[in-house]
Amino acid sequence: MSELHTFLFDGQPVRGMVVRLGDAWRDMLARREQAGAYPQAVTELLGEMTAAAVLMQANIKFNGALVLQIMGDGPLKLAVAEVQPDLSVRATATVVGEVPSGSLAEVGLSQLVNVHNQGRCAITLDPLDRLPGQQPYQGVVPLFDDAGQRIEQVAEVLSHYMLQSEQLDTRLVLAANQDLAAGLLIQRLPIKGEANLQGSSAALAHEDAIGRNEDYNRIAILASSLKREELLTLDVDTVLHRLFWEEPLTRFEPKAGDTGPHFACRCSRERVAGMLRSLGVAEVESVVAERGEVDVGCEFCGARYRFDAVDAAQVFTQPLASPPVEPSAH
User: Fold this and answer.
1) What is the dihedral of CA 46, 50, 52, 58, to 10 degrees?
2) For the CA atoms of 104, 80, 20, 225, what is the dihedral angle to 10 degrees?
3) Taking the model in full, what pTM does it have?
4) pLDDT tens profile 127-146
5) Structural domains in the chain, sorted by start
């Protein structure tokens, strides 16, 4: 089962969330195995990113896709996790070259995507009701801190992003293996207004509060004591009791099943046809002439779409039924 739990600390400007992706995460990995399983470090990184993306989407309640990407100059060229407003999620990674053996903790982001300090983390918000000509909002941060020191954990990268771009203290604990991707988020609530990932920030008059709220700092320290093994093996009730048994919590109805996090891919034959149409007649005809057909595979779910000469010709004679497929999906 996959589930999302939200809670508030009574009388304190702090909120929290816990996500556990079970069947949703295993479904994503099972579909990927058709093309070859990811190395251990890549599996764990992608799982942590997926858990984090669900937490961030649920935190801001954005009416559109939240896309978390990590890219760089190592053997892992790109890792992507995408979450829709209904908490449907999909993820994929592109590996070129040999990934060092071992866990993510042993390998680190430096050896995966930041070999020459060229690694980047991007968060994109693509609204469902985007107006003509409107571009998605995107924030990008390097995989090193203000002192130029490399950051080796996804949780630290995202906490640094939230502090720099949103002026919000945020603590994340993330963990993943072959069976489960999980995460804990603790965040200080804005004093006035609501900072969010769409580009607004806390007022300058309140920036002095960053890092100085005693309630948040105490709770964040407690959250940081959570070990990876505990996050992966203990149920949510046990985790929250162990960490915050002295803190008064208000917990909300967890989201699970149809309303909770679940795997879903938005690829379709119509979207692939739109992508082929964007390539142009000459390009598509050259592929058909060389291979006899156009064969497109979805990197997220493994589905394959084949267009023979007749199908390819119809792509350019029939009206486009839906928007073209995203470049990252195929």
Assistant:
1) 170
2) 40
3) 0.82
4) 888 777 777 888 888 888 87
5) 3-263 (3.55.30.10), 269-315 (3.90.1280.10)
